Amino acid sequence: MSEFTNVTITREANVYFNGNVTSRAVTFADGSTKTLGIMMPGDYTFGTAKAELMEILAGALSYRIVGTTEWLNVKGDESFNVPADSSFDLKITELVDYCCTYLD
Asked: Residue 86: what are its φ and ψ, rounded to 5°?
């Protein structure tokens, strides 16, 4: 889905890692939330409370879920899942455009 309708967008950005990662929250009528953002090249670690679906719209990265040793590669039009109450490491190799869906 490349377009969302009937949503509320939070005007203020979420800014992480000195501005190298930014996102905006999109809230749907049913209360579900996604974030749309950009990640600049670099290495980052994120924690999660809810499970997440990370859709990579453009760019390329490698990720590793906490407790694993294997780095997996993802590029535009691919995605990966992150379990609830965990964290994941990212190595961004080129600018990444992403959509993060918070799962129940």
From this structure: -145, -165
Give the whole-angstrom CA distance, residue 60 versus residue 75: 4
Residues 6+ apart with CB under 8 A from 3: none
Residues 45-71 have pLDDT tens digits of 999 999 999 999 999 999 999 999 999
Q: Which residues, including other chains, have CB under 8 Å from residue 91's CB and lie 6 or more apart?
A: 43, 61, 62, 63, 71
The residue count of the chain comes to: 104
The verdict on pTM exceeding 0.90 is yes
Which residues, in sequence order, are CB contacts of 14 under 8 Å at separation 6+? 22, 23, 24, 25, 35, 37
